[in-house]
Amino acid sequence: MRDVAERAGVGLGTVSRVVNGSGAVREETATRVLAAIEAIGFQRNEIARSLRPGQHSHTFGLLLGDLTNPFYASLAKAAVEVAGREGYAVLLSTADEDPQVERRAIGNLIGRRVAGLIIVPDQGDHSYLEHLNAHDRVPLVFVDRPATGTDADVVLFDNEGGARRATQHLIEQGHRRIAILVAPSYYTTGRRLRGYRRALREAGIPVDERLVVTLNRGSAEDAASATRELLTAAEPPTAVFATTSFLTEGVLRATQQLRERVGLVGFDDFRFADLMPTPVTVVAADTEELGRHAARLLLDRIHGESGPPRRTVLPVHLIVRGSGENRQGRGTARR
Amino acid sequence: MRDVAERAGVGLGTVSRVVNGSGAVREETATRVLAAIEAIGFQRNEIARSLRPGQHSHTFGLLLGDLTNPFYASLAKAAVEVAGREGYAVLLSTADEDPQVERRAIGNLIGRRVAGLIIVPDQGDHSYLEHLNAHDRVPLVFVDRPATGTDADVVLFDNEGGARRATQHLIEQGHRRIAILVAPSYYTTGRRLRGYRRALREAGIPVDERLVVTLNRGSAEDAASATRELLTAAEPPTAVFATTSFLTEGVLRATQQLRERVGLVGFDDFRFADLMPTPVTVVAADTEELGRHAARLLLDRIHGESGPPRRTVLPVHLIVRGSGENRQGRGTARR
């Protein structure tokens, strides 16, 4: 580092600021320092450091689903930002609900000597991690869902509370026949189903199991066809609670196609929700905060925190935009 | 590798398939192989390999803007997929149009011994890369925009052609007063402005420079306030060409607020475009293909391709959904 400072004609503090990305350095100076680093080959230290015993790569791994899902994109954005501020780089890997792909990706990331791992786990058993990670004990943080079969820090949303609030809102608007669309056997939507059942029970409304629809896939297409079936059945619902934003999209597609109006609350806010023909009421969750919190927990562990696994539940809140309203007579007008 | 195969009780081919992620391996077998790898510490080879002369880390860097912009998310998704299939991991870094942050991020990625770099460059001068990368000669691929001051492979969209087509469509619908919203001095929107001017010239329509609006920032908010100004001016346009999807969002917000209808074509498709009160006509570009193509060019270079820099221009196409239509008398009815 002294060589770099000398060659660039700056102080050690300046080199350190450039390398760590902390504090303000004039552009021209930063470029000179970076060129000196390059010329001298100081950068090799990054890797050399990762080989020294007790040290690691100043890189952490992030394993999540399809980035074109805005939920994962926000998570990744926040984690990369927190990592960058602490001088960490992020190795990105995607698994998308395939257990075999997930195992391989985790093995691959550990093999690259990451200092820690943030994982959005699939719904399968994760006890294999106890073996896979037995030697290195790489700190893990699970996000959005806990992993079964292993224990580590986890950051979740208040799925049950948010779903209860969504359903209560529809009940307050006068709805009694409220359908729920559930994506297949995910932890989060399972909890959301619990919140729905609880709100109905608390309001003294019996659950009509024909209105509880578990989809084969969590896609907008599957949600659209389930909505079409619901709305053309003998006793259609007057409202739908869609447990993810893809399912909300499907409900909107089906109702627009059928020119039907149905009360709607979606879990997760989305861009353009307020610009829809009927602005969409949602349960909003701060996904970037989820990512930031997970990254901070992981950095704690990397820095030596050794307490028992921590479980953080982040609050969610209802944004009322109008789509939950009950249009009097709609249900009867159809028949 | 032989040790791993022995310990896991499988053939060498199976170990290879698990490590490289190629071919089908039963879950249970894969787990056994991964556990054996862990136990033996075979993974250290990943890093050892990156230190051997002439070898590299089997990692490439991806430097782009804010991941909550679906454009960058699609790019990242595609690059990670191509990388994964070839046994590469992706180090993700974001710079978001700040030249100093960009330089530091590139220096940092090169310092981590990436095998190559995919960069969405900002609009500044990139000649510093000649110094920064002088020693390692890490292959670079620029994506979405070329970088000034240095030369490397680049993958672009046909911005000018797409913008010309968008403007032609509005002219075909009978519009003559067509405004354009341009994000500040980006390469892409500059080319789109050229396409707009060209289409008007070809149709014999003089450009009214009051209808060419360059925004201070490329945000939906700035586009909304520019649209409000345009529509409340003495001679309002009957149509707007929005050169990015954020700007399209801004036009939609302003027209909904003012309860005005204006012809609209946006550059870049977006989720929910077809569900808007008036479905939005767009110039659609395949961003995932952009990312895949960039990753393939980079892997070519990593594998030794040494020809002159290549420039690929990917086609775009118009999706007509109705928002470009001219509502007769609208312009005059207002005055």
TrEMBL record, chains A, B:
Residues 1-53 form the HTH lacI-type domain. SMART domains: HTH_LACI. SUPFAM superfamilies: lambda repressor-like DNA-binding domains (SSF47413), Periplasmic binding protein-like I (SSF53822). GO terms for molecular function: DNA-binding transcription factor activity; transcription cis-regulatory region binding. Keywords: DNA-binding, Transcription, Transcription regulation. InterPro entries: HTH_LacI, LacI/GalR-like_sensor, Lambda_DNA-bd_dom_sf, Peripla_BP_I. It comes from the Bacteria. The keyword Protein biosynthesis does not apply. CDD domains: HTH_LacI, PBP1_LacI_sugar_binding-like. This is LacI family transcriptional regulator. It comes from Streptacidiphilus pinicola.
